[in-house]
Amino acid sequence: MLAHARNTGEQVTSAPAAVWWNDTVWLAYRAVNGRAVLRSVDVLGDGSQKRHEAAFACGETAALAAPDDRLHLITGTAGGTYEHRSTLDGVGFSAVRPLPISDGFIGPSAFTAYSGGLAVLWAENIGGQAHLLTSADDGSTWEDALLPFSVQPEPAICADPVSGGLLVAYGDRAGGEGSFTIALVDPEGPFVVRRITAPTPGACARAAICATNYHNHPGLHVAAQERSRFGNGEWRARSGLNALTEIGEPEDFGGASDGLSLVFDGTHAWVAWKDYLGGDLSVGPYATTFDLPLDLHAKLGTPCDPAGCPPDPRLVCAATDVVEWQIVPPIIHNARRGDLILTPGDGVGLIGALLGRLRPPQTYDHMGIMIGDHTLIRHATMAHDRLQRRNPGRFMTGEFFGERAPADGFRPDALTYGWPGTITQSVEDAFFTGFNTLGPTGRPFNRQGDFFAHNPGVGPLPRPAADAPRSEWEAWMKQQLFADPEYPSDSYPIHNLPNLPAYVRDTGQTIEGIVLKPPPELEARDPHIRQVLHRVAAAAETIDGHYRFYAYTSSGIALDSKLFGPAATDPIWEGRPPGAAWAAGTRPVVCSSFVWAAIQLANAAAPGQRIELEGSATEDPEELLASPSVDGLYRYLSDEREHAGQALHELLVERVRKEVYQAVQELKYEERLPIDLTTIGITGLLGVLAGPAAAAIALLGLTPENIANLKLLFEDMPDDVATQMCNTFAKDRADETDERLWESPGEGLAVSPDDIRLFWDPPTSTTRERVWHGLYGRAERLLLTPSRPEPRRVHQWDRSRGPALVTGTVRYRDIEIEGATVRFGCETTMTRKADRHTGYALAVSAGRYEAFASAYWPDTNQQLTGRVLVEVEAGDQPGPIDILLEDPPEWRRLLSCTGRIDTVRRVLVGEDDWAHATVNAQATLTWAPETWGPPPDNAFVTTWSTAFIGDHAQRFNVRVDMSVTLRADLSLEVTVRSMLCENYFDTSKPPAGDQIVTTHALEPFTVAPGGGSDVKFDHVSGNFPPDRGHVEFTIRNLTAPA
What we know:
Elements: E1 6-11, E2 17-21, E3 24-30, E4 35-41, E5 49-57, E6 61-65, E7 71-76, E8 82-87, E9 97-98, E10 104-105, E11 111-114, E12 117-124, E13 129-135, E14 143-150, E15 156-159, E16 166-171, E17 180-186, E18 191-198, E19 204-214, E20 217-228, E21 231-241, E22 251-252, E23 257-264, E24 269-275, E25 280-285, H1 286-289, H2 294-297, E26 315-328, E27 331-332, E28 340-344, H3 350-355, E29 364-372, E30 376-382, H4 384-388, E31 396-400, E32 403-410, H5 412-416, E33 420-426, H6 427-433, H7 451-454, H8 470-480, E34 482-483, E35 491-492, E36 502-504, E37 509-511, E38 514-517, H9 520-525, H10 528-542, E39 545-547, E40 587-589, H11 591-605, E41 610-612, E42 634-636, H12 638-669, H13 682-690, H14 693-700, H15 704-731, E43 748-750, H16 753-759, E44 771-773, E45 778-781, E46 784-785, E47 788-799, E48 803-808, E49 810-812, E50 815-816, E51 821-824, E52 827-830, E53 832-834, E54 837-845, E55 847-857, E56 862-872, E57 875-876, E58 883-884, E59 892-905, E60 913-926, E61 943-949, E62 956-966, E63 972-982, E64 996-1001, ...
Parallel strand pairs: 39-40, 41-44, 48-57, 49-58
Antiparallel strand pairs: 1-25, 2-3, 3-4, 4-5, 6-7, 7-8, 8-9, 10-12, 11-12, 12-13, 13-14, 15-16, 16-17, 17-18, 19-20, 20-21, 21-22, 23-24, 24-25, 26-47, 27-46, 28-29, 28-38, 29-30, 30-33, 31-32, 34-35, 36-37, 38-45, 42-43, 48-54, 49-50, 51-52, 51-55, 53-54, 55-56, 59-60, 59-67, 61-62, 62-63, ...
Helix pairs in contact: 10-11, 12-15
């Protein structure tokens, strides 16, 4: 790679034009003999050159443009004729065509290709009136139009890839200080969209410009020759945003020139110039040709984050020798922008229970899409607590015994248009805190939960000190949560992505969350795969949606504007509090259809680059396509939907009855309800209520009014809630709580998380033009780590010595790894196989790096990592930079505890009351090596304790207290104490006194690294018949993710 300016060895008589074509910088200029010359310089390779002298004269000026596979050349002289030619190889030229320029001038940077074709910026010799010459047919015909400004010789032009317009740079004809102008021109007018002037000390003559896109941040470089009383003056460059909102400080040119051009290759900017004195032609990187502006000089030596890209490629975030402890936030190590995250259900949740009755078996009940590497996710979800919270129970439709209850279901609009819908969260918030954290703008990521917008006049509170009173923490926490748009005083955490695997109690199976992504070896061979995923992520960021259960029946409604959230003026919102219409205009989605919709919107945004998920051919008999098919959606047959609806209805009825039964027990214990059901189980109670009222009154000793209330609570309300929910899923009819519309569900056409995992195709080559087939195809274990301290190398800004190229291999156990991710600072690539070897090549800015590599190892389902401290020289390196991968360290342990707690309340009338609860917990414990040095206080967790609380069987439940200590030999020492409890409803504190029926304490035991230990014991009360508790769980001592 060309790291510094290189003299081509030729003297020229005109300023060179420069363009990026066929992965090479091409130059055009007038030779000493007056001929036009094209010269290619392999700036990304060894700097080799090829010179092609044309058989025609050049004139005073040559200009270049490269719209496609042809290179276009303009030659001519001010006041004379300008001629246009094109070439496929730089040797043979098309027939000459004169340009319709009359008595005018152009410059070497005044010709460009843009989305509409070719464009030439020229001006009249007398007065400098600017014109825009455009051609939509490769120069066969031209259209000329006036521009609203006058210029000095020689102006410059380039395409703006963001707006599709043209960026122009020129010295204003009026001259004087601040006459250097940059403008964005819409060629359709043409008219000036916006302009900005640079504070030059004198008048400006020649100009050069190129649009840049460093790290996907659109910008520009401009240069101008500032005149002085003693000559043409010196060249100075400036950098800015292509939006022209600001322009940077001057950057001095490292030579003397009377003409130069700028060109951008997609990664680096290059400069070509003619020396002022001898006429030597040189080319070099912009990064070493122009000095740093003052604002970048001020950054040198200040701290920087190596994961963040520098504001300019002339800076490098350089590694120092200092290592310090840093708190690293939660991340998903193996998830990048565009990858999908699927989390499993345990079979007892609402969505999990529904999906679990379908075929093929549905394992995952929630998902999202990464919109930032490792740390940022967007998903569609619903705050179920908003409906279910009994206090204040705002969306419930009735009241019993002074408590809010869904007597006739829930408010239909709140169930149909589920809040908050589509949200963006950090991994920390989505999996751990449930916060709606402030984004880079200073506002929360999600406006539909913006506490400050919903509570005007309230300012943000500072984070309390660790020892602050609980009231301060509660007030601060409230501001971090999602504020209800209807009732701003209510706020909710949203963490519907679980941070640990699911444990299926009935089978004893543990199911890990997964990252769905392209196979890394395919992605390494074709970088376009990740670009397509970025398109999908970008589309997902634009979707404002509400959570619509009916999308599990018809996922295509996400694209049906008739089913979007009703307008704010719709009668459905009449009489509701302000903010009730938050869902107006939003798309109806669930977690899986949200991802499908993002792909359809990505297709709509770029119809010439259609993404195909499935196509018309299926690979599995379970893939039932509609006729005509809808790509990525699958048929769900009527009988399986009816079966799933029946299972969901039964589950909801049972769940509501148990919650009511539990609430009645609590109210009785708190002496707020004169009803004692301690001698009768829920089954017996249902039997009594189903019989004659007189018998129920006699048996239970209650008034007729209370018997009627119990019948509503245990019979009508559960059926109404279940029917309303099932009708909402099957028919989009949350308004119907009595008629069982769901029993005739018809077919569905939808997509579930498991459909995406099992059926959507991996990326494959296709012979059809303009179609991209397949996206994902590889499922990896979700490698999520909590916030934790780690020793990190300190980095600070340094001046890069120029562009560089690094190459090498990534190895594990002497195996060259294909598809490994390699990172130098913010620059990343993947290793791929070429010929007989597998390695990487990456263009970076020269400097000192701590290079990092990682790869997922399927044999262990772990992330392998490796680091190497290296000084990267400008240009090519003297040898490869190889990185060795290592397994995760043994000293960081993952404690896993899974099992069950069963409780039975024996009753004299009816069937016994059973309760079953899942034990499922994880914790990371660390015994850091002494070589790391002393960590901060409380940085490492070597002890962990928790309490597992069983569900209530009537008024009885079981509590298990567990304490674990990590020892120096990395074994776990475990102590367990358990209690069978009665009337233990406030589980935020330990039971006391007569709440404790029996206790059971185990002798402390150890679990070796990589080992496990099974625990079983029982509680038996002294009652007759005796109440019982059964506890069984397994503790495992595993290696934590790297």
